Amino acid sequence: MIIRRAALLLSCLFFAAVQTARADEAKPEAPLSVVRVNVTNQPWDFARPWGKRPPYSRRAVGTLLSGNRVLVTAELVANANYVEFETPEGGQRVPASVEVVDYEANLALLKTEDTEFLKAYQPLEITHAKVGDSLAVWQLESNGALLVTKGPMTTAEIGHYPIDDAPLLVYRVTAPLQFRDSSFTLPVVKEGKLVGLVMRYDNTTNNAEVLPAPVIEHFLLDAKKAPYEGFPRIGISSASTRDPQFRRYLGLTSETTGGVYISDVLRGGPAALGGMEKGDVLLQVDGEAVDQEGNYKDREYGKIGVANLFSTRHYEGDVVKVAVFRKGTKKELEITLKHRPVESYVIEPYVLDRAPKFYVLGGLVLEELSRQYLKEYGNDWMKKAPEQFVYFDRQQNELFKDGPKKLVFLNRVLPSDLTIGYEELTQIIVTKINGMAIQSLDDVPAALAQAKDGLHKIEFDNEPRVIYLDAAQVTAEQSALQQKYRLPSLQRLN
Amino acid sequence: MIHRFWLIALAFGLLVAPVFGSPNEIRKSIARIDNTMQDSNYRVPWLPGNMAAGSGTGWVVSKDRILTNAHVVSNARFLTVSKEDDPKKYIATVEHIAHDCDLALLKVDDPAFFKNTKPLELGGIPELESTVAVFGYPIGGERLSVTQGVVSRIDFRTYTHSVLDSHLTIQIDAAINPGNSGGPVLQDGKVVGVAFQGFSGDVAQNVGYMIPTPVIRHFLKDIEDGHYDRYMDLSISVANTLNPAMRKALGLGDDDHGVMVSAVQSAGVCGGKLQVGDVLLSIDGHEIASDGLLELDGERVLMSEVAERKFLGDEVKMKILRDKQPLEVTVKFDRAWPFLMQANSYDTPPAYVLFGGLLFQPLSRNLLGAYQFQSDRVNYFYDNFVTKEIYKDHPEIIVLSTILPDPINTYLAEFREGIVDEINDRKIRTLQDMANAFAEKPEFYVIKFIGYARPLVLERSAVDAARERIRKRYNVLAEQNILPTEFTAASR
Questions:
Q1: So what's the pLDDT on residue B483?
Q2: Closest chain B residue to A395 measured between Cα atoms?
Q3: How far is it, in rounded angstroms, from Cα A251 to Cα A258?
Q4: What's the 3-state SS for B22-37?
Q5: pLDDT band for position B200 (cuts 50, 70, 90)
Q6: Integer Cα distance of B4 and A30 in angstroms
Q7: Which residues make beta-bridge pairs with A323?
Q8: pLDDT band at residue A408, thresholds of 50, 70 and 90?
Q9: What is the mean pLDDT of chain A?
Q10: How many beta carbons lie within 10 A of that of residue B27, not counting itself?
Q11: Residue range A168-182: mean pLDDT, rounded
């Protein structure tokens, strides 16, 4: 799984190889429905949380939808400092802004104040595609002409999105895409209607993963409501019941053919609140039978994972009826679906458009552990980041059922006379300060008020387990430390 | 990268003057050792592993014993020793082997071997910059080779034979290349070390390491009672007390002394005696500086050197501060560190249980080397076995390492690399527990793995029916090998 993710990330930006036969040079739709989108992104530097990394720019193709909104993937506008629209042939540019963004569904709606600019374009309607359809991927030539590459849709399945915890529906299309410099966020079109946006492309297999119309429609409907709520989740993990020994152990008789084993239920999640339990066998959702692998027969896509029912077909607040098999009896449950807010994770899967929290305590740089921090280690962060942190992230649902709310860790030490002897400390979890348990970085100031005998006592989960700082000296040397290391500020909390 | 010297030793010292008394006498007491060895086979544990041949050097240390490196005679199936002036190959056997300090003592039954030999005398620690001579049989040659070098550094260093252990090591600039392993390093006619490992790579050249005489003497003394007990260890970690606020909090003055205990392994000899936060002031009367070093025989050495010099049954006295109050603590070395799974292991056939085509093996350095597990949990449990005291719940970490495909386990692939937690609601702490659980006759064997909410279920009738089929199909010679080791015994 690790390898697969890396390969896909590597190939998501640029399409190499100028080999394949040019697809039929479709006549540009008149008038055009796409504009160029130029974005300057500047992510925060989680290793030095007081600042940002150098900015970089990306060019993409945005699709005009009704209501003068332009659709792109959320990845494109993550940590965007500046967004502008540009005419396909280059030339006129107007400032634009992000109206709604959902990093889990990987979609963003952009708008511009300059209403005149979009008048020349025709909004695209949205339609669904099915396996076997011939789809067209749109790119832009530098002169503004539409470059159309056709290919068949091969698969509809539940697949990975850039935020790893949130699988949703994906279309797969095989098409020999050309290399063009603004090939981010390409629209995929069927009979002049939008069926999705290219999310990743692998130029060795010509396989494009497409963010599909049902997810886009879901997002657009959610986007009409404020505040934006996001895709609902049920909060379960499941495991196959194909093994006949396992089925007999569960007490499933031969007249029950399907059912997937619920291997875990997220504490406080919709399934748990609705009465689902670990060890249940999920038999039906919305009257649809669930098979041994956790698939149901979708009216559009055929056999597909039940996550599609919970997350794409349903909306926040919807009630689904499920049937489970529990200890020999069948039970009907009603589950109110809810979106899982990113803040509810102990180790947040993403921190985008938000500055990382930090607290510099006499040279000890404290931060909250997030996957965004781990991703500073690059594409193979799962191998390169501290082993313990990666393990904590991957197993967080299991390890932190009873807290803490967040993991505060000592990222590094800025050496000064305050921290002599501590210079080499790095990447250890802070458990207590002055005897107070640290549940999040926001607990730090209150804990610091509890210094005893003029000393701050800081405890860690690992060696050296405990260190001390002189409380008066910490206060006295604050500004000197800030100046010495040229820090714009010493803390950023809620 | 450090690697062991099996063969080859060629280097030219800068100095030409001989530094030993009567070279001929010394030469007669140095032997070439030939080892036919056989590895353990962790992938197919009921079969032996690869065979290989190697050679090294040994020397007469007493009337009728030869000293060499443990790695020269590890996994030995057949050992011979020969001398330069004697055409005969003599059969040798390992009498004592110390994998933690890479030394071994060999016995030769035929007294003819020791004719004309004279035990070499042990010297002390040679001075820095002084010249030493390295004797050995490079590239397995028939003739003894001698090289010279200068003592460059005396330091603690990892002994790569076990990887887990560090002891005093002397670095010399004779580029001893593989082959001298086990050979004596002499100065003024006395042995000052045993050549044992080198340093290779881009960063260093002309670097060789020898085991100094304190380590050799420790080994020889340890085996005097006929049994090797291994090195003693305090099994604690300490943190420096350089920081003034830290010193104040711990009740320390301005005298640069004392270190803070930052971890105490409950399974170690200090378990229950020391606590995290205690300050160690002195050990056996040696004052400990705030950086964890102390003075011993005129050298500043790591605090652990005091424990290094102890034997089973010895004691150390420590002066400590606990909550700023002085205390004296006496620790008795009544056992060596029992958890050796992170060390290379030799001469032991792999432990395993095969059940329903599922191969369960206790996690160890050797197992990791054989399988390259991808599971982050397996790697985390291995690395944190000691630091997070995982051994408390799992003295052995039992991993489902391989599945021999059969209809009975065809849907179980997802459990590969899983760590067994319970079988039929009973905790599995050791491989023996597991064998016991499988010896019972329930209707279902319900195996829970750590972090997997879904249990692995095997039907007894299905297992029974598959047993002969799997044995035959995969040529399984034995379904289990359980080694009650020191640590599984200690965990009871």
A1: 80
A2: B451
A3: 13
A4: CHHHHHHCEEEEEEEE
A5: low
A6: 74
A7: A284, A332
A8: very high
A9: 91
A10: 15
A11: 90
Q: Tell me the DSSP string of B164-189.
A: S-EEEEEEESS---TT-TT-EEEETT
Q: Assess A473–B contact: CB distance below 8 Å, yes or no.
A: yes
CA–CA separation, A108 and A98 (whole Å): 7
The DSSP line for B46-76 is TS---EEEEEEEEEEEETTEEEE-HHHHTTE
Domain at A1-231: CATH code = 2.40.10.120
Whether residue A242 and residue B374 make contact (CB cut-off 8 A), yes or no, is: no
B454 and A263 in contact by Cβ < 8 A?
yes
Q: Which residues of B are catalytic?
A: 71, 102, 181
Of A243, A422, A455, the CB nearest to B248: A455
What size, in residues, is chain B?
Answer: 492
Residues B9 and B134: beta-carbon distance below 8 Å = yes
Interface pTM, i.e. ipTM:
0.86
Give pLDDT, residue A21.
38
Query: Can you tell me the mean pLDDT for A61-66?
Result: 95
CA distance B376 to chain A (A): 6
Of A264, A394, A421, the CB nearest to B246: A421
Tokens at A328, concatenated = 């020999």
A residues 197-226 closer than 8 Å to B (CB): none
Which class is B352-490 in CATH? alpha beta
**Mutual orientation of helices B376-383 and A387-394 as an angle, nearest 10°?**
130
Tens digit of pLDDT for each residue in A370-383?
999 999 999 999 99
| Residue % of chain A over a pLDDT of 90 | 84
pTM: 0.88
* B368 and A CB contact within 8 Å: no
- Interface residue A391 vs chain B (CB under 8 A): yes
Contact indicator for B170, B210 with CB cutoff of 8 Å: yes
CATH number of this structure's domain A344-492, picked from the four choices 3.20.190.20, 3.30.200.100, 3.10.20.90, 3.50.70.10: 3.20.190.20
Please give the pLDDT value at position B205: 65
How close is the nearest chain A Cα to the Cα of B14, in Å? 40
Mean pLDDT of the region A69-88: 95
Q: In chain B, which residues fall in CATH 3.20.190.20?
A: 352-490
The CATH code that applies to domain A236-336 is 2.30.42.10
A264:B453 CB<8 A: yes
CATH architecture of the domain with residue range B2-225: Beta Barrel (2.40)
Locate the DSSP E strands across A327-444: 329-336, 358-361, 364-368, 408-413, 428-433, 436-437
Contacts of B457 in chain A (CB under 8 A): 243, 245-246, 249
Tokens of residue B422, six digits: 């319970």
Check CB contact of A231 with chain B, cutoff 8 Å.
no
Q: Is B458 close to A245, i.e. CB distance below 8 A?
A: yes
The encoded tokens of residue A332 equal: 């009907």
Rounded to an integer, the average pLDDT of A326-346 is 94
> For chain B, where do the domains classified as CATH 2.40.10.120 start and end?
2-225
Measured in angstroms, the CA of B443 and the nearest CA of chain A are apart by 9
| Cβ <8 Å between B243 and A419 | yes
Q: What is the mean pLDDT of residues B62-88?
A: 94
Residues near A485 by Cβ (< 8 Å), separated by ≥ 6?
A: A414
> With contact defined as beta carbons under 8 Å apart, do A108 and A102 qualify?
yes
For residue A415, the distance in angstroms to the closest alpha carbon of chain B comes to 12
Q: Which sequence spans correspond to the domains of chain A?
A: 1-231, 236-336, 344-492
Q: Regarding the domain delimited by B236-332, which CATH topology (the fold level of the hierarchy) does it fall under?
A: Pdz3 Domain (2.30.42)
Kindly determine whether residue B453 and residue A419, on different chains, have CB atoms separated by under 8 Å. Answer: no
C-alpha to C-alpha distance for A86 and A58, rounded to whole angstroms: 13
> Residues A402-418: what's their mean pLDDT?
94
- In whole angstroms, give the CA distance from residue A116 to residue A118: 6
Instruction: Give the position of tokens 């609705």.
Output: A274
